[in-house]
Design brief:
Layout lengths: L19 H11 L5 H19 L14 E3 L5 H7 L5 E4 L2 E5 L2 E2 L1
Antiparallel strand pairs: 1-2, 2-3, 3-4
Helix pairs in contact: 1-2, 2-3
């Protein structure tokens, strides 16, 4: 299973904003997921599932992978999807692109 964002505020899906954590929340909500393990399936679809669908081999959290990630305060992965916490840090290709909600 995979999900993604193909556009941001386009005619096909005007509600997109490119936030894959929010996409995971929408998938979990619309699928009726309630338990943490179910919600984590939606998170996997929005992260690792998308990478698998795109054939990305350097995806994940291990040496040699692209340094693309975001940092949030969350006790468990499912809470990051449900609570939609503030993005403390966003890193793309090893460069900080946003910190505490500020870009750059």
């Amino acid at each position: 299973m995979a999900c993604g964002n193909d556009g941001i505020r386009d005619l096909w899906a005007p509600y997109g904003n490119g936030d894959m954590l929010e996409r995971a929340m929408r998938l979990a909500y619309r699928s009726g997921f309630r338990r943490d393990d179910e919600i984590e399936l939606a998170l996997d679809a929005a992260t690792f599932g998308g990478a698998r669908a795109l054939g990305l081999e350097d995806y994940g959290i291990r040496p040699g992978c692209a340094a693309d990630f975001l940092l949030v305060d969350s006790e468990v992965p499912a809470a990051a999807v449900v609570v939609r916490p503030h993005r403390r840090l966003v890193v793309k290709a090893g460069h900080v692109v946003a910190r505490c909600g500020d870009s750059g």
